[in-house]
Amino acid sequence: MTDRSTAVGNDDGSLRDARAELERPPSSNVDDAETTLLELFGGRYALTREIGRGGMARERFLREIEIAARLRHPHIVPRYDSGDAAGVLFFIMPFAEGPSLRARIAEGLLAIAEVVPLLRDITRALHFAHEHGVVHRDIKPDNVMLSGGAAVDADFGIAKAVRVAQGSGATAGLTQTGTGIGTPAYMAPEQAIGDPSTDHRADIYSFGCLAYELPTGKPPFQGQSAHQIIAAHMSAVPVSVASIRSDSPPAIAALVMRCLEKDPTDRPQSSADVVTMLEGAVGLAMYEPNA
Known about the structure:
Blueprint: E1 6-8, E2 18-20, H1 30-41, E3 47-50, H2 58-68, E4 81-85, E5 88-93, H3 101-106, H4 112-131, E6 134-135, E7 144-147, E8 150-153, E9 160-161, H5 189-192, H6 201-216, H7 226-235, H8 241-244, H9 250-259, H10 271-286
Parallel strand pairs: 1-2, 1-3
Antiparallel strand pairs: 2-5, 4-5, 6-9, 7-8
Helix pairs in contact: 4-6, 4-10, 6-9
């Protein structure tokens, strides 16, 4: 990245340049916003183009900035700077050279030897976020970038920071007020219905959906409407990965299906558990004869 390669961004995590992402007040016009930012940057950055435009409420934007500032990890795209320029909220993040995981999937099925390290990268990022009290709530291929052969999560835009429980005998944990926020094809059943007990295990379910799609080319449930997809998450059992992709290591196929359990108590109980399982499978996948 160079100092003078910043682009205005959007709300779906798809930005590629070191960027200034704007949340403009309704009365602002584009030229005024860009002028304000250029003055603020003082020549340190150049606005080369607008890639898209977001629709986040100010409160959500401010929350994202606060959350993202805490997450510094090799597999999470960092935020370099943020602020409020005359009512125009912005943040700056680095340019990611590679495509999104969604674009890579569109090119064709991934080799198993490619799938497992990518899943490991994603779970490491989730583990770090969960340790810092952050539930992502929108794990999907669109929000993962491929950079330097590794996977990096580019969007904690609807993540919700949660506070460590206080009081005598309390233990650190993750809790949050549930709302049906997310993407239907990757949404845990409890998240879809806005269950107030929804926690980090919803991310493990969403990871399972993504992990299902990488070797098979499609998420576990598809439908004509969001309602149909959510209904499937609630009650249908997906076709096993192993039956679609025979060269999948049994341990990986079993882990994916376990992550997709309807009841959160039947899933791996932490992203650390998933990391450990994937770590043990990496060497196996690299030597799969049909990979």
